[in-house]
Amino acid sequence: MPVNAAQFSQKDLALRRRAATISIAVGVSLLLIKFGAYWLTGSTAVLSDALESIINVVASGFAFLSIIISARPPDKSHPYGHGKIEFFSAGFEGALIVVAAFAIIWTAVPALFNPPELPRLDFALLLLVVGGIVNWLLGVYLIRSGKKANSATLIADGKHVQTDAFTSAGVIIGLLLVKLTGWHWLDPVVAILVALNILRSGYHLLEEAVGGLMDKADPEFLTSVANALQQIRRPEWIAPHHLRSWRSGAVRYIDFHLVMPRYWQLSQLHQTHKDIETQLLTALDTPGQVVIHFDPCADQYCTLCMIADCPLRTAPFQKKLAWTEPLLVAGPLWPSPPAEEPDA
């Protein structure tokens, strides 16, 4: 039996909700701090940092909603569950970051020709340093929580928050240079550099979200599947191939073909399917479902077959193939024999 995805979601839902709630609370606090620093200085660079914090709060709220929706069990209208909403959330967050980047550039370009005065920099810098440290620690917490709960939403939110921390660091360095040199035109320049940096971050988030929605191959996970199959393999499992996988939230769906002895009964194949599914998902430590298409062996497979007393063997066993990711993702080594016509 596959691991119950609904039970798994309930197990980690408290962690996801707690992380998302903390993200919203900290985000609102930092937003107030940064707008306070902007009110003190009138800095375009500080304004760019504050604008990104608005995106953080909005994105965290959407992330919280998506976490609740993704935990719902499958139903008639969504038989594979609601986990894909997490990729929509990551994409939404990436799009907001891109919008914020262009808004910052729009605000900063006019300031290049009319640099603002920057009073009370000392206290504003102190506020930004505190905010940057808190943001970085929040990002580390969200990414760790997301990996533990297998949540794309929390991981995306954590990466965004860490990007915001880098943004704050850039703003702090820029304001320090302004304070030391008196070159106020550096302020909008720093704002534009910040915008370009977060634009790159937003693009990567959009790329990851589109990849998840389009079921882009995950070679790292497929390698884990290949290693797990290698660990649990039995002599009767002759040659897997056409390995594929896709993801819906925390749930993994895996399917592949497996060459089996052609004299086996349907009941044996059914039990083999159950055994592989249970052992594979346990080894991967993930909720999911495994679908296997069984192929009957051909004579060419005898040299790879490790069954000692096979009644149909036509050639001696020669070598044991290592089940690596490239081998399992590829097609069959040899075609299966044609199906026998039933007796009239």
Structure notes:
- The protein has 344 residues and is mostly helical.
- It contains nine helices and three strands, in the order αααααααββαβα.
- The protein has two domains: 5-213, Cation efflux protein transmembrane domain (Alpha-lytic protease prodomain-like); 219-329, Cation efflux protein, cytoplasmic domain (Alpha-Beta Plaits, 2-Layer Sandwich), CATH 3.30.70.
- The chain has a three-stranded mixed beta sheet.
- Helix 1 packs antiparallel against helix 2 (44-70) and helix 3 runs antiparallel to helix 6.
- The longest helix has 37 residues, at 5-41.
CATH superfamily of the largest domain: Cation efflux protein transmembrane domain
Order of helices and strands: HHHHHHHEEHEH
What fraction strand? 5-15%
- Would you state the CATH class of the largest domain? Mainly Alpha
Helix content: 55-70%
**Mean pLDDT across all residues, rounded?**
86
C-alpha-based Rg, rounded? 27 Å
Keywords:
3 strands, mainly alpha, 344 residues, Alpha-Beta Plaits, Alpha-lytic protease prodomain-like, elongated
In short:
This protein has 9 helices and 3 strands, in the order αααααααββαβα. By secondary structure, the chain is mainly α.
Secondary structure layout plus pairing:
Elements: H1 5-41, H2 44-70, H3 85-113, H4 121-149, H5 152-181, H6 186-213, H7 219-232, E1 239-248, E2 251-260, H8 266-284, E3 288-296, H9 325-329
Parallel strand pairs: 2-3
Antiparallel strand pairs: 1-2
Helix pairs in contact: 1-2, 1-4, 2-3, 2-5, 2-6, 3-5, 3-6, 4-5, 5-6, 7-8
